[in-house]
Design a protein that fits this description.
The radius of gyration is 25 Å and the shape is globular. By secondary structure, it is of the alpha+beta class. The protein folds into two domains: 6-209, Beta-galactosidase, Chain A, domain 5; 211-593, Glycosyltransferase (Alpha/alpha barrel), CATH 1.50.10.10. Strands 6-7-8-11-17-15-14-13 form an eight-stranded antiparallel sheet. It has a four-stranded antiparallel sheet with strand order 1-2-3-4. It has a three-stranded antiparallel sheet with strand order 5-12-16. The two termini are 49 Å apart. It has 15 helices and 30 strands.
């Protein structure tokens, strides 16, 4: 099956995707949201790639070096074997800062015999908008373009540079390397130095994983997801990306193709909540600072998303010269959704602020700023919660009173009251409690539909929506409340398709969705678990894990029929929900073992 069989490598500055045959087919440098230098992913002919080619009798196997972001692709014909270890360097420097340059190392490790391979090195800078020409120099190969704007890329290698450019066969007798750099190197690289970069990067990731708790069940899946989420964080500002790609379609041949290389407040807040649950408080603290820096004015309305360097304008454009993934046009850069109004982001942000205060109360340096933000959020929610919005799914049509948005307005008040208790601000509690109760009553009155026996997508609607399953996890309703149980059952009946969930089934701006939004299936599994259907939930979870790619990675969507991965990749949302589900199952297992030992 033709699938998104790619691995991601990254260093919290940028990332690259490498296929299961070792072909580098997506990378933007010097950072995540820069223009692409390789984009075969989005256009087979024009996009550009860096491929490792072997004869047909070589078997290829790919896996991550355990508990790291180093991708190992092994090529063997039985007698002759070599490996390519792909990574982006990341490790501590003596100064205490991280070394994370805009570079990719492809370390070629000789294993046995005299293996033969050739390379197809074909960068296409600036989204392949103009010609890119390659020039062999004394110490490197430089690729340059100057049609749209001037840009360059450097390749250093231990192999013969002319052979590399012409695609000649290389006989491997000892270790070698390729080093792709956005900047020209001051000191000339060597194979020994690249081997050292590999070991240092390996140690960085092993140390990072060592600071993460281990779990009785699904530990490998949790760790792979956690490493993937870490790779989608941008160190410089604390931003978290929704995904590493743009314009991978939700359905092949359709136009639901968006740029996800930005920081959605909702996605990022949920990721940070999970990452801090795993004990990585620095990521959480950096993200909180990112938010604080975005809110200079006390009454400033938060956008739903920002650029990773805190940009507020994300103008959407189409790259019409690119054919798109499997011909799915248009290819978009930028995202017009930044202008949308979504009232749920305030509750999500307040939830994260509260979580951080509880988890790291002795270590919060910006308590006064957080209290100011808390008061500001309550002021904004009080002013706007009665208004319709675009909702979690970013409908581009008319605004509606979405249930999820209203629930998250309630969450904003609930968490603000708890924050007020932490800071001893008792006068605010009484005032805010009345508003919290008003919102709660409004939801119970207008979002509950007795005809379908469930909370529905929006006020006055008959449509079901997977997002309302989060009512329970945000504490709006108890898992055993008959209203929640019947909502879970109604959603299962209406939105489940062979165990995979639609987000909703009412037509949106682009018609009826034909793929499952991966996170919704995880939400459903979690809800089944919470209402007591634990065996059924586990069976669904194990089946869903089987739909990941060969490395355990998930995109945004899964095709209902073929089960192929669709949408931007890898998707932070999908992996954070996987972790939440897996931790629930693992904790249950631990509790059962404790009870067994007591009895």
């Amino acid at each position: 099956m033709d699938n998104l069989n790619y691995g991601i490598i990254g260093n919290c500055r940028s990332a690259a995707l490498i296929s299961d045959t070792g072909s580098l087919e997506w990378c933007c440098l010097p950072q995540f949201d820069s223009t692409s230098v390789f984009a075969k992913l989005l256009d087979h002919e024009k996009g550009g790639s860096f491929e490792i080619k072997t004869k047909y009798n070589y078997e290829i196997h790919q896996e991550y070096y355990k508990n790291t972001a180093i991708l190992v692709t092994r090529y063997s014909d039985g007698e002759n074997t070599f490996e390519v270890h792909d990574f982006m360097p990341r490790y501590h420097k003596l100064t205490g800062k991280y070394n994370a340059p805009p570079e990719i190392v492809r370390y070629v490790k000789h294993i046995s015999g005299a293996p033969r391979f050739s390379v197809h090195y074909d960068p296409r800078l600036e989204y392949a908008q103009g010609n890119t020409t390659n020039h062999v120099k004394a110490n490197f190969i430089v690729s340059l373009t100057n049609k749209q704007k001037f840009d360059t890329l450097f390749l250093y290698t231990s192999f013969n540079k002319n052979s590399v450019i012409s695609g000649d066969e290389i006989v491997l007798k000892e270790d070698g390397y390729f080093l792709i750099c956005y900047n020209e190197k001051i000191l000339k690289p060597t194979t020994q130095k690249m081997s050292l970069e590999l070991e240092r990067t390996k140690i960085y990731w092993l140390d990072w994983v060592d600071r993460t708790p281990t779990y009785k069940q699904f530990n490998d899946e949790i760790m792979r997801s956690a490493i993937t989420l870490k790779m989608l964080t941008y160190d410089k500002t604390g931003a978290v990306l929704a995904a590493a790609t743009t314009s991978l379609p939700e359905t092949i041949g359709e136009v639901r193709n968006w740029d996800y290389r930005f920081c959605w407040i909702r996605d990022a807040s949920m990721v940070i909540k999970v990452v801090s649950e795993l004990g990585h408080k620095n990521s959480a603290k950096r993200y909180l600072q990112f938010i604080i820096d975005l809110m200079p004015d006390k009454d400033e309305k938060l956008q739903i998303m920002y650029g990773i360097n805190k940009q507020k304008t994300l103008t959407e454009k189409t790259l019409d010269h690119l054919d798109g993934y499997k011909g799915s046009k248009p290819v978009r850069i930028g995202n017009a959704a930044y202008k949308q109004k979504q009232n749920d982001i305030y509750g999500i942000l307040m939830d994260v602020i509260y979580e951080q205060l509880v988890k790291f109360s002795n270590d919060i340096e910006n308590g006064e700023e957080l209290w100011s933000i808390t008061k500001g959020i309550v002021w904004i929610v009080n002013k706007h919660w009665r208004e319709p919005d675009k909702g979690i799914w970013e409908f581009r049509g008319e605004d509606r009173h979405f249930t999820f948005s209203k629930v998250l307005c309630w969450v904003a008040l609930d968490r603000a009251i708890k924050v007020a208790r932490i800071f001893g601000k008792h006068r605010k509690i009484e005032q805010w409690t009345a508003l919290e109760q008003e919102i709660k009553e409004d939801i119970h009155e207008h979002a509950w539909n007795s005809e379908v026996n469930a909370f529905v997508q929006s006020y006055g609607s008959n449509h079901l929506d997977a997002s309302v399953l989060l009512m329970e996890s945000y504490g709006f309703i108890h898992a055993k409340d008959p209203k929640f149980v019947s909502t879970v059952k109604a959603i299962e009946e209406d939105l489940s398709n062979d165990g995979l969930l639609y987000r909703y089934k009412n037509e949106d701006d682009f018609g009826l969705p034909s793929s499952s939004f991966t996170i919704c299936t995880f939400w459903f599994i979690n809800s089944l678990f919470k209402i007591g259907e634990e065996e059924k939930a586990l069976a669904h979870f194990e089946r869903l894990l089987g739909y990941s790619n060969h490395l355990g990675l998930f995109s945004e969507d899964i095709d209902f029929k073929t089960k192929r991965l669709l949408g931007n990749f890898p998707q932070a949302y999908s992996h954070l929900a996987l972790i939440e589900c897996a931790i629930n199952f693992s904790r249950k297992k631990s509790e059962e073992k404790i009870l067994e030992s007591i009895s």
